[in-house]
## 1
Amino acid sequence: MRILHVTPSFYPAWAYGGIPRCAYEVCRSLAAAGDEVTVWTTDAFDAGHRCGPAEQTVDGIFIRRFRNLHNGLAYHRQLYLPLGILKAPWRDLRAFDVVHVHSHRHLLEALVGAAAVRRGIPYVFTGNGTVPPIERYVLLKRLLDLLGADELLEQAAACVAVSQAEVPHYVSV
């Protein structure tokens, strides 16, 4: 199976916490099982540094990093603005059987999720605690939800909760 994983940060950007770690472990396990695994992510490493190179294979996972406009915004404001991502979903998504989106309310999720729906490619969503509009930027998250961010969850072929505590978050959407 050809699986595309979409996450705002990924190996080795451990400064971003659990999401890149969880996504990496899922990808590593799928690649070890024989699936063809690709990750689309940003080049955000931390507030002041970028991951590189733009394309590389690690543990059987092909990683494609889109240059982030400003890593300080990603690190301090959770605002990922990857340059070059605008055309990729429409041009390259046909190469995949399924898409797995990690995290909620970011540009990669919105663009790739919308393209997957239009192309009839099933996608799986894992929020890793990002579904409820809590913690930082609550008003912005609520605004994004009003503008349709939660529609991507409703259109997902499946949602994966990383804990029992996360299950009600998906039910409430």
## 2
Amino acid sequence: MNRPSQSKLRVLFVGSFFDTSIKPERGGQHVSCETLVNSPIRNEVDFIPFDTTNSTVPPPPLWQRFLQTPRRIGHFLRVLACKKPHVTLIYSSGGFSFFEKGVMTIASRLLGSPVILSVRAGAFQDSFRRSAGFRALAKPLLRAPSLILCQSESWARFYADESGMPRSRLEVVHNWINFDRFVPREQPGPRESAGPLRLLFVGWVNRSKGIFDLFAAVGEVAATRPVTLDIVGKGNDYE
């Protein structure tokens, strides 16, 4: 990847960059994108945001997303041709999003832009292992990026063992958190410290979001001290 030594690295960032004044609900993808582009890395990188957020929550029907894809791909190609990024960073969830981002990955490589792909959906592994059809389509798309970012060592093992990715094209980068947004509370007083540990889960109530892992952890804590768990959200495993 060649660029002038004194210029910033131009990165076309495909992710979640919608206007929160119009759509206030934000998910983990949006927070992650916002945190990265506003981090000190912006002193070295010129991000070119490209929003691919679904228009509704839950996502619109598959047929509607399929009809929207050609226009979105066309827009992506225009941005790619006009901005001429040094590298393209693509965030993807699972399912249909992954195949759409796969097309963007191939287009970027054909137009000379290296691609860093980050699949940020726990359900992706389940779909890959469960469906032979999904696996057959996903494997060649996983080989298209120049580099795949893995959120943990277990993700790196998954790509290497089950999709055949060479370890040299896998990089483990753990989720980043802006700690300045979280102000520690003062030390609890005697009455508060004697009360139950209060936990709050906000998100989709789906197995892939770790809700059952949370239940198991709460059970372990409850063996040693009182604990309450409030759940805000619904999903496929709510009942």
